[in-house]
Design a protein that fits this description.
heterotetramer, A: 397 residues, alpha/beta, Aspartate Aminotransferase, domain 1, Aspartate Aminotransferase, domain 2, three-stranded antiparallel sheet, 12 strands, 43% helix, B: 142 residues, alpha+beta, Sufe protein. Chain: A, 3 strands, globular, binds pyridoxal-5'-phosphate
Chain lengths: 397, 142, 397, 142
């Protein structure tokens, strides 16, 4: 990445070299099927058990509450569909929010098409779900509440402990999509009364294609993927041993340096935010203030400019950023998250997300602060919306 | 994702800007879809002697505006009217299916500007054209 | 694996070193999220497209009919549940067989619990599904037929082309679980009238945790995993780029040497079979004869001995084999496949599967032929069933 | 998966074989579950002076038979009757949950042999014991 400024760590991280090394033996040497009983597969089984323990340790769970999946999306799908399917006799109401990742949102919509009622809660202008709203939405037929731990676009951290407490009080299972939070902010599933939690390795310097779902002991959940008896009968398929080992190594590595990394990254992030707000007129800052957002997330809207334009202009300058969720970059709909916090269509289309990480330096941030104002200025000059905007504020004077 | 031509016209758009006291102005698109295109015409003896645009939108919207203005500059307004979105897209060496609507927008904006010019001249506006703003959902299988 | 004789290639293969090398750049270098539009992710997108093309080429499909999954199990689950869910309006009847892998079997049972009727077809004593039986089972309400390409335990290759033809004639989608067959025997989805086909990379020297489902253009299928727009909106989750590249490299490598490898491996397999049948009294050979079975599969029953005993005794001699499906080794139920071909419980419990592969040598086979007869003899001597068996044949004389 | 002790008793089982003209013979298990255990007793003055077994089954079934015969050899038949499956499992340094039933089988086979001995001696057979043949499904969560 020489000369390149990667600012899309929320979309995916590189796999840390230590993690790659940890995975290496499981491709060509200790490659046995962990379900086999011969001694050759013992190393494999031990490695998987160790990874499971590492995951459990980081979130305060016990090892037999951790199930490996193919990523955050599968974990989210499993949590929502699995709990709903298994508890249909108890009720058909699910509560979630308008700012969830598509993995939760579209799983919830699938449930809606299959006889479930889903409440999609609003959020406040900084992207916070209000616990009172959750409390109010709970009914006797509610069988699941799913509220993300931290939002992937605007970084707002949710009042998860409060929501967890009130769900526990009502005896309703509580799931949180913690894909952006795990190993980046402290999580304790017991203290926070979390019943199910999703994570994905490639968001914390692990490999793509592997994740995990924490399911508290006693929570009833139908399988999403049926077949062999792997993962204690809960998730079938020959174990992705290298991937699971990678997830374990990555969660250990990343959470072990969480405190110092967060501080360093948040400081750079704040330089970035300050610089953008000072040097670009009429920039809008999206999401919650520093203390209540992910340490690595900065999100802005620049009235008059469409996001893709910014990405491509930044790309020419060696800067890789995102507009809204990475997944929806191919789509033309403005981000549902930015709409949910009350942005206009123009603002939502003109958003820029920059997410920092391990290799981000102050030089990187300075580079962005040098090129971005120029880019914004130039593109605004060719925008009819900017022209209208200038007229409107002149008229307002 | 984008052809060289699209990137060139996106990075160095031709005919950007406004025309003071234009002979025709047209606009297409809406902020909901994330694209607004505004076209200014200078017309002399039915020939488009100058054309400028301002566009809010993605790279292909800007490139489509740029290319469309290039294609109609120096043409008669009747020739300009016949410029199709596929001609714009072709001139750009193609657009991704999901972005084809940007070329439609360019056609539409030019039509709007021409009709504005016609209105100012007392000519009847040309109507009835339906623009296909399907946002390339054709890329979705099934 | 020095001094070790790995004979469980059907459970899983090592990842070929060439494949590992092909995957390497996608962990630390070209690690971008393929959904991102910046230039940094272009390499990724190209690599995924290339892999997809390689898969398509090997089975005679076109690139946009290939969807990557987390393995064979997910592909099977998706095929069954996806087709059933999407076509409920047309009917609720699914046909499959009694010898499918648990991935298909338990997905079918899940459908059964959810309002679908499932016919589980019998097989002949060599493990063949009879096309006439499929034809007879088809009704106006049949929306899917799923018959595996080759059985993972006894190696029998199914009359897939015949079944495909009759399904196509009746307009019923035909799925085949080809996890054991892909890159090992020739497959042409067009010529064989296959509508959906599952594969898994770790069965052909690719990494674990990645597979693919071929879905013929025009086949309607609901998503199994909802979320972002990856895989053309059909299978959400940040792409497992390294895994997908590994699958592509592996399918190319393995199918390119298929002809010579199959011949070499089948020859060794036949030496093994002949040796076992000659040197071990009352050994029973399971499955179809050489021409109609996977080149690498040998399966026996040794009356009087329980399979796990054999595995552990062989393990002490450095030989790694399997009894029934790898997945069910932890279970106590005798293999459903061996029961379906008419074995008694005793025979089913006394089965041994040895599956050969790239690193199998004639020395390996000779080693097995040296140790196995001794092991069988010793264990039989402490078996009351063997005692009974000897009495019964003496009585029979 | 298995303790050293289990592997030792599996690989070098004690007391394998038959006793000619035994004083008692018992059998437990069935081929469906994949385990059959047969126990032969030589009893003198109510003391088990010799014991042999033959077992069809997995490693833990063979190890359980071996260990159980060791534990009761030289004991009175009443003491032998009181041998529990958990004592067998403990003596083996534990069995995987899914394999606990093998130790139950050993207890059951010894009981059957003792009852056979009692029958031959004209003593009333001891009844009413229920054997827990749950195949360790306790390992499955939920
Ligand atoms: C909040 C959130 N949930 C779920 C996901 C899905 O994770 P994955 O792509 O690993 O399936 C992502 C990232 O893409 C995310 O940011
Ligand atoms: C025939 C068959 N189908 C499906 C599977 C499942 O594949 P995977 O373990 O990759 O999910 C296997 C192997 O385990 C198999 O042999």
């Amino acid at each position: 990445m020489s000369g390149q400024v990667y600012l899309d760590y929320a979309a995916t991280t590189f796999t840390a070299p230590e993690v790659v090394s940890a995975m290496a033996p499981y491709f060509t040497q200790s490659f046995g099927n962990p379900s086999s009983i011969y001694s050759f597969s013992e190393e494999n089984r031990r490695a998987i058990a160790e990874s499971r323990q590492k995951v459990a340790d980081v979130i305060g769970a016990s090892r037999d509450e951790i199930y490996f999946t193919s990523g955050g999306t599968e974990a989210d799908n499993w949590a929502l569909k699995g709990v709903a399917w298994r508890n249909r006799a108890k009720g058909n109401h699910v509560i979630t929010t308008k700012i969830e990742h598509h993995a939760v949102l579209y799983a919830a919509k699938f449930l809606q098409e299959n006889g479930f009622e889903v409440t999609f809660l609003d959020v406040d202008p900084e992207g916070r779900v209000r616990p009172e709203d959750v409390a109010r939405a709970l009914t006797d037929r509610t069988i699941l509440v799913s509220v993300m731990f931290a939002n992937n676009e605007i970084g707002t951290i949710q009042p998860v402990a409060k929501i967890g407490a009130l769900c526990r009080e009502r005896g309703v299972p509580f799931h949180t999509d913690a894909v952006q939070a795990v190993a980046h902010v402290p999580i304790d599933v017991k203290a926070m009364n979390i019943d199910l939690l999703s994570m994905s390795a490639h968001k914390f310097y692990g490999p793509k294609g592997v994740g995990a779902l924490y399911v508290r002991k006693g929570i009833r959940i139908e399988n999403l993927i049926h077949g062999g008896g792997q993962e204690r009968g809960r998730r079938a398929t020959t174990e992705n041993v290298a991937g699971i080992v990678g997830l374990g190594a990555a969660i250990e590595l990343t959470s072990s340096r969480m405190k110092e990394s967060s501080a360093r990254i948040a400081a750079l992030r704040d330089i970035l935010i300050d610089g953008v707000m000072k040097n670009i007129p009429y920039a809008k800052f999206n999401g919650a203030p520093s203390g209540e957002r992910l340490p690595n997330n900065a999100n802005f809207s620049f009235i008059g400019i469409e996001g893709e334009t910014l990405l491509l202009d930044l790309d020419r300058e060696g800067v890789y950023a995102s507009t809204g969720s990475a997944c929806s970059s191919g789509s033309l709909d403005p981000s549902h998250v930015l709409m949910a916090i009350g942005l206009t269509h123009e603002q939502a289309h003109g958003s820029l997300r920059m997410t920092l990480g391990e290799e981000t330096t102050e030089e990187h941030v300075r580079h962005v602060l040098e090129v971005l104002p120029r880019i914004v200025k130039r593109r605004r000059e060719m925008s009819p919306l900017w022209e209208d905007f200038l007229k409107s504020i002149e008229g307002g004077r | 994702m984008y052809s060289e031509k699209v990137l060139d016209h996106f990075q160095n758009p031709r005919n950007v800007g406004e025309i003071e006291n234009p002979d025709g102005v047209g606009q297409a698109g809406n902020p909901k879809c994330g694209d607004i295109m505004k076209i200014y015409l200078r017309v002399e003896d039915d020939i488009i002697t100058d054309i400028k645009f301002k566009t809010f939108g993605c790279a292909s919207a800007i490139a489509s505006s740029s290319m469309a203005t290039e294609l109609v500059k120096g043409r008669s307004i009747d020739e300009a009217w016949d410029l199709t979105n596929s001609a714009v897209a072709e001139a750009l060496d193609g657009l991704p299916p999901i972005k084809m609507h940007c070329s439609v927008l360019a056609e539409e904006a030019i039509h709007a500007a021409i009709n504005d010019y016609r209105k100012r001249k007392g000519l009847p506006v040309i109507e009835g054209k339906e623009y296909d703003h399907d946002h390339g959902h054709a890329t979705e299988v099934d």
